[in-house]
Amino acid sequence: MTTNDKDIVLHVADVHKTFGGLHALSDIDLQVEQGKTHAIIGPNGAGKSTLLNVCVGRLAPTSGAVIFDGHTLTGKKPHEINQVGVARVFQTPEIFPELSVLHNVMVPAFAKRDGSFSLNFMRHLDTQSDIRSEAESVLEDVGLVAQKDVHAGSLSRGDKRRMELAMCLIQHPRLLLLDEPTAGMSRHDTNTTIDLLKRIKERGMTKIIIEHDMHVVFSLADKISVLAQGRIIAEGSPEEVRANPKVQEAYLGGAH
User: Fold this and answer.
1) Three-state DSSP class for 35?
2) Which of 49, 66, 87, 114 has the fewest CB atoms nearer than 10 Å to its CB?
3) Where is pLDDT greater, at 55 or 44?
4) What dotted CATH number matches 1-75+206-256?
C-alpha cells in the first residue's frame, strides 16, 4: 500500500531512546495517516508508553525526531504540543478531583482558547455559556452528562477515563493519543467506548491507540504496529498482523 506524504499527519522518524544502558526505543519509524486509527500493541515493557511520551514531549528522544503536520515537535514542551492539536488520554487519568465533572471538561477548553488563564479563572467558569454548553454536549457523547455536577474524584476509574476523553475531545484535537483507553472498564463500558471512538473517527480525527485488549484493537484499528523490546517487529492492516506467525505466537495466543 502506498501513501502520499501529504496523507501522513505524524511521522516518528528514526527515534531512539536510551535510559543509561537500556535501549527503550530503537530505530522507530512510524507513519500515521490522516483520519486513520493506528494501534500500537506489544507486551509490557515493549516501549509503548515511552513512545507516546516522546510524541507528546514528556520525554526527549536520544536521537531522531517527531514531526506532526510538517512541524517538528521534538524540543517543544507538552503544552506547546497540545496547542498545535495533539491531545493524549493517559493510562492513569489526569483530572482535577475537587472540581465537578462539568468544570473538568470546561478547563481545557479555556486553555485551548486562551493559551493560559488568570489565577482567578475559576470564578468565571459558570459565566461562559458557550463553553459550558459544548462541555455538556461532549459529556453527552461519552455518557456522563447525568454526572456533570458530581465531584470528579468520586467517579469510578472507568468513568474518570471517559471524562478525561471528554477533556481531550472539547479541544478538537487533530491527533488523539489514547494510552489503554479501556483499562479497568467492564465489557459493557468497553463496548460503549469502542462505539464512541468509531463515531469520533467519522468526524475525521486521527488516533493512535495503545491497547492490550485485542477486541478493542481489531474493532478500531486501520493499521497496527507491533512493538517488542523497543523495536517495531511487524506492521500492517489488522488482517496482515493477525496472520503474521510471529505476532500470533507472541501476542495473540497462537493461531487462534
Assistant:
1) coil
2) 114
3) 55
4) 3.40.50.300
